[in-house]
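Reading a protein record of the kind used here takes only a little practice. Think of the row as the fold of the chain written in a discrete alphabet. With that in mind, consider the following protein and its fold in token form:
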Amino acid sequence: MRSVIVTTGAARGMGYACAQRLASECDVLVAVDANEEGLAKAAASLEGKAQVVRVRTDVSDVASVRGLADRVAALGTLRGLAHAAGISPTMADWRRIVDVDLRGSALLLDALLPQVVPGTAAVCFSSMSAYMAAQAPDEALLQILDSPLSSDLFERLAALEGRNLQDPGIAYGWAKRGVIRLVQREAVRWGARGGRVLSIAPGIIDTPQSQQEFEKHPMMKFMVQQTPLGRVGRPDEIAELVAFLLSARASYLTGTDILIDGGTLAGLDRVRREQAAGGAQPS
């Protein structure tokens, strides 16, 4: 049967870069996005490397995700999933962010599970922000996030006091932390069928989405200044990592998250240590 790779968020940014990179790695590339117009333009530019099938999908909608899974099953054997679809803090309120970024990831991995065969691999996108959230451990919050498909997810999150989850930026970091934990659990389920599940945590990458965040959050400029490599990342650098993780070359990697941030978190940690030492240079 024909090999199929699914790329979500394929209309632009990192998802589009993944689609470009992966189109030559399969027989059929399923390009997925909620933006039908943007998806059509992206798919047109991908023709020639593989058969490109575009599927408009809202990853937070159960019926939409099931429809995508059915379409993939009809096309061939699932070889890989690059799940880049998501929204950032300036794009929606906290509920929508959790719904798309965390619950949508859980819906997608669950819907595609029956199609997993030995060698199938999935890469979900978490974020550098997930590691910032982890600096403030919160077991009660994590227990809720560990059940992203529960019917009362948002009611339970809203009932938490003192977490300030109504702040989209805070909700985003925790949603992405939830993705990392989701991948750890799904690696067990997919592994029983011979498949692998990973996540990657991009730092600040040069995409339309991050440019929008730059305009709203001056702190991002400071973060880039602290990045050891002295620049933002490129979407093609993310796509190369995804291509490797989906390939047989990464056949013993599963259930883990890989940070790809140019060293931004390391740079910020240095700043914190210097401030804690009263301005003294760390050894």
Remarks:
- The first strand starts at residue 3 and ends at 8.
- The radius of gyration is 19 Å.
